[in-house]
Amino acid sequence: MSHYINVMWEIALLIIAVAFLLLVIFAIPVLLQVRDSAKELEFALKEFRETLTRVNVVVEEIDQSVKTGSKTLRKLDRTLEAVEQTFGASTFKLVTKPLTGILEAMPVILSASKIYRKYIKRR
Asked: Which of 21, 75, 102, 110 is deepest in the core (most CB within 10 A)?
């Protein structure tokens, strides 16, 4: 009976050893793939950071352009007020009609620029 138990233990240990060997055999390719994926992710994140840095530079340039445009539009507004006072309302309407859309869009552009700057600062 003792011999029978020893044989059973040997068979059980053999089954466990084979199962462990199979686990290792199947785990190696998975672990290699995980390693490769991690390297690719690291590269992608590096590229993303570089792209985000370039985007931030462009956004800052756009922000400066919007600020300059805003100052220019304020000067234009003062000039148009002078034109209206000098030449009358009919001439003023003739001059300002093409500019109406631009003047109405500026507050929206300025607001979007401020919101984006706040978003970038939080990151």
From this structure: 110
- Domain extent, residue 113, equals 2-122
- As a 3-state breakdown, the chain gives helix, strand, coil percent values, each rounded to 5, of 100, 0, 0
Q: How confident is the model at residue 87 (pLDDT cuts 50, 70, 90)?
A: confident
**Higher per-residue confidence, 71 vs 122:** 71
Number of domains in the chain: 1
* Pure H helices in the chain: 2-87, 89-96, 100-122
CA distances (Å), origin 42, targets 16, 50, 54, 64: 38, 12, 19, 33
Return the structure tokens found at 12.
Answer: 């059980």
Give the predicted TM-score (pTM) of the model.
0.47
**Tokens 């919101």 label which residue?**
115
